[in-house]
Amino acid sequence: MTSVVSICNQAIGRIRGRTIAALTDESVEAQACLTYYDASRDFVLSDFPWNFAGKTATLAQKVETPEQWEFCYAYPADCLNVRHLYPEGFLAASRDNLLYSEDRHRRLNGNIPYEVGLSADNTLSILTNLDLARVAYTVKLENVNQFTAHFVTAMSWYMAGEIAIPIAGTSKGRVLADRAMLGYDRVIKAAYSANASEGDPGLPRDAETIRAHQ
Questions:
Q1: 87 and 147 fall within a common domain
Q2: Same domain, 125 and 57
Q3: CB 3.0-4.6 Å disulfide test: which of 3, 73, 187, 202 passes with 154?
Q4: How would you class 60 by CB atoms within 10 Å of its CB: exposed for 0-12, middle for 13-18, buried for 19 or more?
């Protein structure tokens, strides 16, 4: 069964460290995992458009009109990174098949320009010229039961690279970290096929915004 500790122990095992029973252990391994777990999880979630971490939503428009853009929207509270924007009338093929949806979106609507930054009220916002905008984004997930096997493997390799030097020391740790990053790259490449195979969106539904581009 996947757990935070099991993911950490996979990472530790990849650099030949000692396994832990909990993040509260007093070992060097446990302290390194406690330090790097959250950041590693969020990085790997953001580094690849995982289907299981994809979400779509209608953006909440703010009153202010930003410079150089026509509209300002609130950045979703659970968003790690924005994948793309699309019009309100555009029907994404599937919430769980955002790779397909993003490809269709680009072919039918082109890339919609946007910028992420602080608005006048100093909150993170999405700036664009698109009215009634919807967003496809990667959600910040903390529940390990929602992680896929490819994600767990990728995260354990990435985290191994992060904890290698704290656990093994500078000289040996750098070698182990480089090997771990190679392992991470291999898993990410394999994840593309797995991600694309999930879901069968079928034919586009009869939406005005889609018909207009056919």
A1: no
A2: yes
A3: 187
A4: exposed
Do residues 114 and 189 share a domain?
no
State the amino acid at position 182 in one-letter form: L
Same domain, 105 and 157: no
Residuewise pLDDT in 10s, the chain (214 residues):
899 999 999 999 999 999 999 999 999 999 999 999 999 999 999 999 999 999 999 999 998 877 889 999 999 999 999 999 998 766 543 343 444 344 444 444 457 999 999 888 889 999 999 999 999 999 999 999 999 999 999 999 999 999 999 999 999 999 999 999 999 999 999 998 887 777 544 433 333 332 333 3
Of 141, 158, 174, at which residue does a domain stop? 141
Q: At a CB cut-off of 8 Å and minimum separation 6, what does 170 contact?
A: none
Question: For residue 4, which amino acid is it?
Answer: V
